[in-house]
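Please produce the structure of this protein holding zinc ion.
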Amino acid sequence: MRAASAMIAQAVEEYAAAAVWALPDDDLVDALDELHVLQQRLAAVNLALVREVDGRGLAVAQGASSTAVWLRGRMRMSIGAARRLVELAAAIDAGPAVVRDGLATGALTLEQAQVVTQAVAALPAEVGPAVVDKAAATLVGYAGEYEPLALRRLGERILQVVAPDVAEQVEAAALGRAEQRADRDRFLTLSDAGDGAVRLSGRLGAEAAAVVRAALEPLCRPLPGDTRTPGQRRADALTDICRLALATTELPDQGGEPPQVVVTVDYDLLTRQLGPGLLDTGQNLSPQTVRRLACDARVLPAVLDGAGQPLDLGRQRRLVTGALRRALVLRDRGCTFPACDRPAKWCHGHHIEPWADGGPTCLSNVVLVCGFHHRLLHHGGWTVHIAPDGRPSFTPPTWVDPTQRPRRNQYWQRQ
Ligand SMILES: [Zn+2]
Ligand SMILES: [Zn+2]
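Below is the modeled complex.
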């Protein structure tokens, strides 16, 4: 080995000492070609040596934590380059012989060898060793013509070339496995973030995600006056869908009761606009939110008296149901907020004089609004009243319109 490296060193010296400036063009290009091939072949030898060092565990025996760390110190390489070298040496050692031979003869560059090895390793196990060898040989053949990036693209489709009859089956099987994995890994968690928020995270298979998307998308469109981000709109859409589901009678019972959101609140504090509310999940709600929820037909406030006894489960007095809801839908048809086109199905009955302040649940005190505009009414400075012609009329806050000119929903009038 010593003699061999001495000869290589001598050859390099010859190249280095040559009067490059004096070479004719053809000789110059030839020298470059020759040297390039030698470089690749030397790199192949280098890889084999690295593989052997790694295989023997020499680095660890000499006190380094890994071969890459040992190379970093000894060869003054970056740790990234050292790791890539060790990995490539292992991959080429384990890969098809045709790649090792190609490197050894200079038919493949180091980069191309890496691409071919990766492409072959990515073939699914069920194609069998004969197809793997054929794929490797075909790609090594392409290497005479294509640079690494083009070779990588050819590698991605190599199965169609070398085994078109099985490619379709293999792809279908791979897709099936991916689907199974996605289905197995599905989950949804709701975790208390501890700051009044709940973090929602999850993973769905493609089919389930398509169902969720189809349900969310129509509700994600921006509404008139909408300043919500797309993320906020999606979050609201999810809430709206769950609200609709709660409003149907088709969800399974919980302890004999239809499932519903319960907010517990002290009656005196509620009427004085002071009381925080307690959700049955144990989280607190601000007084303003409690008052909006008390207005919302689909949330059940359990109102406590001074002794903490349930005073009124609110059902009779508060909910916009039955004949009243039908009359309300007949009058309003959908969300009554100016320019909103969300239909009645997605709307709540908003009490003009708050229910918590003794406002009656009757047609003259209730308007239909969607969840987004309901929030705007309670927290966004807008107010609503029933005009003399019996239709809802909205007054914007001064920061929206300094003249506070009343506005109406024309969308449902024109329908
Ligand atoms: Zn309301
Ligand atoms: Zn609306």
